[in-house]
Amino acid sequence: MKTVDIVIVGGGPAGLAAAVAAKKAGNDSILILERDHELGGILNQCIHNGFGLHTFKEELTGPEYAYRFIKQVYDLGIEYKLNTMVMDISKDKIVTAMNREDGMFQISAKAVILAMGCRERPRGALNIPGYRPAGIFSAGTAQRLVNIEGYMPGREVVILGSGDIGLIMARRMTLEGAKVKVVAELMPYSGGLKRNIVQCLDDYGIPLKLSHTVVDIEGKDHVTAVTIAEVGPDRKPIKGTEERYTCDTLLLSCGLIPENELSRSAGVTMSPVTSGPVVNESLETNIPGVFACGNVLHVHDLVDYVSEEAGRAGQNAVKYINDGCKDESSAETIEITATEGARYTVPSSINPERMDDLLTVRFRVGDIYKNSFVSVYFDDERIMHNQKRIMAPGEMEQIILRKSQIQEHGGLKKITVKIENE
Ligand SMILES: Cc1cc2nc3c(=O)[nH]c(=O)nc-3n(C[C@H](O)[C@H](O)[C@H](O)COP(=O)(O)OP(=O)(O)OC[C@H]3O[C@@H](n4cnc5c(N)ncnc54)[C@H](O)[C@@H]3O)c2cc1C
Questions:
Q1: Domain final residue, candidates 254, 278, 313
Q2: Which residue is closest in CA terms to ligand 1's atom 48?
Q3: Distance 9 CA to ligand 1 centre (A)
Q4: Given the CA of residue 256, which atom of ligand 1 is nearest to it?
Q5: Which domain holds residue 300?
Q6: Domains in the chain: how many in total?
Q7: CA–CA dist 271, 91 (Å, integer)
Q8: Are residues 261 and 114 in the same domain?
Q9: How far is CA 87 from CA 18, 19, 277, in A?
Q10: pLDDT of residue 254
Q11: Which of 14, 138, 157, 308 has the maximal Cβ count within 10 Å?
Q12: Is 233 found in the same domain as 162?
C-alpha cells in the first residue's frame, strides 16, 4: 500500500489552500484526490465576479480565484489525482479511492484533510405539494447548465429560497434573457449576503418576498405555473395570500448541506447545528490527524474565509506530523459554547497549549440583530463586548481570541459567545 504524509480529499478552494499551506510549511508528501475532471471545485461554475476581495484585494471571478491556487499547486509540484472518488476513510487513516487508471486503491496517510465541500438541499427535502414536472432545478444545477454546459433551463422563472446561489442565479438568468418573476423566501430574512440582494435583485427590479413559500406547482409534463403564499410565524401558509405566477422554471436555493458521508463513516463526531465535523483550535476532528476545512466543516459565505481556514488546516496537519502524530484527544481543553443568538462556533474547543497567538472563531447568528453586541465570556467574566450595526444569519461573524488573554485567565473552564442587546 502506498504511504503519503497528507491526503487531501477534495480539490476545491479548501483542498487547494490546505495543500499549498502544507507544502509551504515544509511537507513534500501531499496528495490531493478530486472526483471531478479538474481542480477548483464549485468555483469553476461561479463565473460572476466578487471573489478574492479579502485575499487578493481584487474582484475576481470564481475560476480566476481558483486558478490563483491551482497555479500554486502546479508551481509547487504538489501531486494530485483527478477523476478519483474517495470511497472510504478508516479510523487509522487508510484512504480507499477509485479511478479508471488505478481501479480501486488504498493509501495509508499520517494525516487526512477533509475538504469535500457541500451540496444543495434537494427538492425531496422540501415537501412541496404538486406534480413532479420537468422544469424544477436546484439553483446550482441551473448555474452549471448555464455557465458550463451552455443550456438555458427556461425563460420564465420563479426562485424559492434566497441563499446566495439563488440570488446569483436570479441575476444570471436575467442577463441571459429570462424573466425572473419573484424570489420567495420562507424566513422573514434572506439567507444571502446583503450585497447580493442589492446587486442581484434590487438592481434588476426582481421582487423578494420574505415569509413566503411555494404552495403549488402546476404542469404535468413541464412546469406551467407556481403559486406562492405568505407564511405565519409557524411557517404555515396563510389562506387567502396565494399569488400565482405563470412560469416554466422553478429554481430551488434552499440551503447547503456539507458532504460528510465519508466523515461519518470514519467515525468523526458531527455537529447537529453545522452538519459538519466538531473541531478543535487546530481544525482537528475527534480522530487524531483528521482535519476538516471549507464548506464540509461549515457553510461559508465568502471563499476568502475558506482559503484562510484551509491554510490553517494544512499547517496544522504538518505540525501534527512533525510533532510525531501524537493523540492529544485526552488533553485538557476549554469548551466554546454558543448561546443566546449565536448558533454555533468553529472551533468548539481550544487547547491553549496548541493554539496560535491569535485564533479566529467563526459563527452565525440565528436571527436579524440590529445595534446588538457580540459578547464573549471567560467563565462568568465578560471580556469582549463589540457592537455591530447589523447581524444576519446569511453573514458569518467572527471574533479573535488571544492566547495571552487565555493564559492570563488561569484555570479557565468555559468560553461563551452570545448576542446581547446592551
Ligand atoms: C452550487 C454552488 C454554488 C456556489 N456559488 C457560490 C458563489 O457564487 N459565490 C461564493 O462565494 N460561494 C459560492 N458557493 C460556496 C462555495 O462552495 C464556497 O465558497 C467554496 O467553493 C467552498 O470551497 P470548498 O473547497 O470547501 O468546496 P467545493 O468548492 O465544493 O470543493 C469540494 C471538492 O471536493 C470534491 N469532492 C467531494 N467529495 C469527494 C470525494 N468523495 N472524493 C473526491 N473528491 C470529492 C468535489 O468534487 C469538489 O471539487 C457555492 C456553492 C455551491 C454548492
A1: 254
A2: 41
A3: 12
A4: 53
A5: 1-119+255-324
A6: 3
A7: 18
A8: yes
A9: 21, 20, 18
A10: 86
A11: 14
A12: yes
Residues whose beta carbon lies within 6 Å of some atom of ligand 1: 9-15, 33-36, 41-43, 46, 85-86, 115-118, 120, 140, 143, 164-165, 168, 256, 259, 262, 294-296, 300, 302-303, 306
Predicted local distance difference test score (pLDDT) of residue 124:
59
Q: How far is CA 406 from CA 350, 354, 355, 411, 418, in A?
A: 10, 12, 10, 9, 18
Last residue of a domain, one of 225, 254, 283: 254
Half-sphere exposure (Cβ direction) of 56: Cα atoms closer than 13 Å: 17
**Cα(370) to centroid of ligand 1, in Å?**
31
Ligand 1 centroid, distance to 250 Cα (angstroms): 23
Residues 20 and 31 in one domain: yes
Please state, in angstroms and rounded to a whole number, the distance separating the CA atoms of residues 59 and 274: 29
Instruction: Give distance in angstroms: CA of 14 to centre of ligand 1.
Output: 8
- Whether residues 133 and 171 share a domain: the answer is yes
240 and 129 share one domain: yes
Which residues, in sequence order, are bridge partners of residue 134? 222
Residues 305, 229: one domain?
no
Q: How far apart are CA 75 and CA 211, in angstroms?
A: 49
Query: Mind listing the pLDDT tens digit of every residue in the chain (422 residues)?
Result: 899 999 999 999 999 999 999 999 999 999 999 999 999 999 999 999 889 988 888 989 999 999 999 999 999 999 999 999 999 999 999 999 999 999 999 999 999 999 999 998 875 555 676 677 899 999 999 999 999 999 999 999 999 999 889 999 999 999 999 999 999 999 998 888 888 999 999 999 999 999 999 999 999 899 999 999 999 999 899 999 999 999 999 999 988 899 999 999 999 999 999 999 999 999 999 999 999 999 999 999 889 999 999 999 999 999 999 999 988 888 889 999 999 999 999 999 999 888 999 999 999 999 989 999 999 999 999 999 999 999 988 889 999 999 999 988 888 999 999 999 88
C-alpha distance across the termini of the chain, in Å: 59
Residue of minimum CA distance from atom 19 in ligand 1:
303
Based on the fold, state whether residues 246 and 141 are members of the same structural domain: yes
Q: For the domain that residue 244 is a member of, what is the CATH number?
A: 3.50.50.60
What is the 206 CA–ligand 1 centroid distance (Å)?
27
- Sequence-distant (6+) residues with CB within 8 A of 158 are 180, 181, 182, 183, 184, 214, 226, 228, 245, 247, 249, 250, 251
Centroid of ligand 1 to alpha carbon of 221 (angstroms): 32
